[in-house]
Every structure is written in structure tokens, then in C-alpha cells.
Amino acid sequence: MDLQGNVQREYGRFEQIVSHFLSKSLHIILDSRVPSIFPNGHNPLLGTPVKKSDKWFTLILGDGPACLENLSLWHRNLTEPMIIDIVLVQEVPDSSSDHNPTITFGMGMYVETLIERWVVRYEDSRTVFPCVVESSSSYKKTYKKSIILLRSLYSLMRLLPACRPFQKLCSSTRASDFDISYKVSSFTAPFSREELEVMKIYQFTPVDAPEGRLFISLTYRDDLSCFNFDTSIAYPPQIITDYFA
Fold first, then answer.
1. Strand 108-124 vs strand 82-91: parallel, antiparallel, or unpaired?
2. For residue 242, what pLDDT is reported?
């Protein structure tokens, strides 16, 4: 019996589970936060058309955003945390941006505000390559528990405060003065004390895995009432001179 070969095969299966867990988590989060990743003319509130069936974790989301194809970092090193920042980009008057980081698009001034930070990671507790063969049942248990975790993530996305501006963008037929963008990285600067004062932390129950655990945690703004999501870019009123009642 080739013990080392069996170890490598079994661990290879687990690496595949972790890789798909990371990409599926990213897909779920972006699917529920960033309308701009969808094809033109597609409204995500009406459902995602399934062209390529990704049946991992029995959660079919349809075609994923292009960034899912660029996860080479986490395919090489699955222990690197995947940090997903959800950023509100809002048009503001010049006087309102004195103390906020601003960016300029065209003729307008915009301010970026981090409203959610997701951290998805596999915490590997091994110090060396495993020297024992994990039973296939342990990987199956990890996979089944991951299904529950990802479904919980899918449900929570629609209950958080950031869902409101996402829905507003998806349902609006007029140009809005705000947008939602995202950043994906393996390292980012810690929150400042001022940011932590307006943030809450939520962590899902970790999933036990061979030689480690799968984690999803969230730091988010619980109150978005200071942002006005009801305004749209106003166009001059148009008088219809040839209208007959």
C-alpha cells in the first residue's frame, strides 16, 4: 500500500474543497453587494441566469464575476486569508470631504466608506505535512458542514444594513449619486479606533476540517442612516408642450 500516495490524494481532495469554499464565498458576497459585476441589463433581484452549472456545496449561483478567475493567490496558498472589502462610493459636495478620503471621477467628487469587511480563511493547525491518512468520511463531513455555513452566509447577506443600498441600486431606473465597489486582498490595514466605534463584529461558527478549520467573519457598519440612499442625479424637468389630456 502506497501510504504517501494516499496521503497526497486525500489532501488533494481537501485542497479542492477549500479552494471552492473560498471562491463560492466570494461569489455569494459579491452577488449580494455589487450590481456592477452583472452583465448590462441584468437585474440581480430578478434572479441570476445559470449558464454554467457550479453545483459545489449544492448552491448554484450562475456565472460568477470575472474576479473569480483571478484567485491564483489562494490556489497557491490556501492558508492566506481572503479579505473582501465592500465600499460605498458616494458623491459629496467639496465641503463634506474635508476629513474623508476622496477620489475624483470626471467632474464629481466622491468619498469612499468601508461598510463591510469579510474575512474568509482556512486556518491550518498543522506544522508539517500530515503523516497519517485522513479517512474519506472526515472530508465528507467537512463538505456537508460547509454547505450549511455557505447557506447561512447566503441568508445573512440579505439581512445586513448594506443590503439596502444594493437593492436601491438594482431597482432604480435613474442614475444614483452613489455606487458600491469592492476590494479583495490577503492583507489590509487594521481599523482605526474611530472606525471600530461604528462597527460591529459577527463570526459564523467555524467548520472543523482535517488539520484545521474554515472561518468566515464580518466587521460591518450597523447603522447606515447617515447616508442618503434616496437621492438620484436630478435631470432638468422637461415640459411637454404638445400634451393633450
1. antiparallel
2. 45
